Task: structure prediction
Amino acid sequence: MHTLTVDLHMIAKQAAQDVDRLESAKTFVAFTADRRGTTARRGPRR
Result:
């Protein structure tokens, strides 16, 4: 049972790191697009 708990902890930690990386990438893309005087591509307007 201890191994399962450790595995779940490692999965949760990896998921949190993946989310952080995605957020950083999104911020970086928006920043670089802004610096070039363009707008970052966003979803379709409604």
